[in-house]
Amino acid sequence: MTKVADVAFRSKNKRAKWLAESRHRLKHDPRGAAELMREFGVFRDKCLSGQKREKIESSITYFANNIDKMKYHEYRAMNFPIGSGVTESACKVIVKQRMCNSGMKWKKQGAESVLCLRALNYSSGRWGQMWDKINRYGI
After folding, report:
1. How far apart, in whole angstroms, are the C-alpha atoms of residue 51 and residue 54?
2. Residue 8 in contact with residue 21, Cβ under 8 Å?
3. Mind listing the pLDDT tens digit for each residue in 93-127?
4. Do 72 and 102 fall within a single domain?
5. Most CB contacts within 10 A, which of 42, 56, 58, 67?
């Protein structure tokens, strides 16, 4: 969206205002992504420059390819994180810190087992649930 804002608005204030409103619509409006994609098309049709047009076209293509994943209003309602920070942090803490120490080599089955245990350990309440299940049913 930043690419589109940079092309569509000359004024820094208008650009910032449009971006804030657009991000809000994307996060909270069930039809936000589709409406923004249509708005991008309007901006594209107003652009005369080929380079500016290409920037908007790349944003339209991105939205078109990922619109089925842009259900942020649903994800927020389910308390799912919608930013990449949580995922990137989990990759660093759960995977990288354990699997990439000096001299370590893993086979698929061993790596999967260790990562499952680490994920359970870092998930609130899941470690205890796993042991309760093992105590009840065995391995």
Report:
1. 5
2. no
3. 899 999 998 999 999 999 999 999 998 988 888 88
4. no
5. 56
> Which three-class secondary structure state does DSSP give residue 47?
coil
- The pair of structure tokens assigned to 105 is 């080599």
The closest alpha carbon to 73, from 19, 17, 25, belongs to 25
Query: Total domain count for the chain?
Result: 2
- Mark whether 9 and 69 lie in a shared domain: yes
Do 12 and 70 share a domain, yes or no?
A: yes
Identify whether residues 48 and 105 lie together within a single domain: no
**Any idea of the CA torsion for 124, 128, 129, 133, to the nearest 10 degrees?**
160
- Give the separation between CA 87 and CA 81, rounded to whole angstroms: 9
